[in-house]
Amino acid sequence: METEDRIVILDHIKNICKRKCILPVVAIILLVALLFIVPFGSLLNPKDVDGIFNVKSSDNFVEVSTKKMKYTGYDVKNGLGTKFSYYYALKDGKCAFALIPQNLVKAKGKNLPDDAVKEEISNLTFKAKVIKPNRPFNEMISQFSKDLNWTEEGITSISTGLIASSANYHPYRYIFCLILILVLIAIAVARLVINYRRYKNPYSFVVCHYLNTEERRELIDEAQEELDSENYLQINATYITENYFIDLDNSGAFIIPLRDVIWVFRLGRRGFDIRKHTLTYTINFITRDGELMRIPKKSSDEAMAIMKSIKATEYDIITGHSDAKRNMALEIIKRNQEPVVEEEKTEEEI
Fold this sequence. Notes:
Elements: H1 9-37, H2 40-44, E1 47-50, E2 61-65, E3 68-77, E4 83-91, E5 94-101, H3 102-105, E6 120-122, E7 125-131, H4 135-147, H5 152-158, E8 159-165, H6 171-200, H7 213-228, E9 233-235, E10 238-240, E11 244-247, E12 254-257, E13 261-269, E14 280-287, E15 292-298, H8 300-311, E16 318-319, H9 323-337
Parallel strand pairs: 1-2, 5-8, 13-16
Antiparallel strand pairs: 2-7, 3-4, 3-6, 4-5, 7-8, 9-10, 10-11, 11-12, 13-14, 14-15
């Protein structure tokens, strides 16, 4: 008869899988929301705008076809060293500004310097991001107003308050971010599917990585039988039965047949929180075939109790870490990996 205190390995695995589904679900929701927040569609397909004065504050990315614009005499560089030039246009008492790549407005001529640009452009199309006035723009306005014997306030008062800035149009950055978001969504979906399938079929959970699916199914059933017999040693969430090491911590589920183990030792490490002076320990199991299984996040007392309990079993397992014990374990592994050669019988023996 089952009791409330019965330890059920499959139920523990299902609980782990349910918890592991939470993070992928949250990640998918946030990443999908990010796809709607960031204007990737507008970036990949900029809005066609006929004339600089038709640019609106609600626009994100635009492809502007200019009629006629004049050079302010001021340039800027972006972080990659690409040069852009400020141009302006006047219409019906309003002034609109654009920041255009110099490779589009470069002046041609034998005696012109390399950075010479056209004083006036017309019928030019360029892609840009619509931005508000920023520090480089305000610095340009300050100097530009002096050149015109005007005031900054005067120019600002007739400005549209928008800039069609090619310097802020970074399609490759956004495309990289889009690809990254899609990859992360794919990873989150894959993890969600894996954990859901393991929840529906807990026997598929990897409790022992060097065994195949059918062997793990048998392993879980046999370990459950020994737990049901209540003949085991318990150290918090760790159970050592007659033939199995079973760890049912919140972080996972591990089952190791003790008959496979030749060496077990602990290794300590300090966590990321430098304020904590205590070490956490990982229990390392080495099998006869040289496989390694790690059981993480054990306290010093837990690790010591586990080591003592394993040493007390009927299996001949090397416990503790030292060069001598390492060499002993390597020798056993080497012997197990050597092919078995049957001696030929002589005629006399026959």
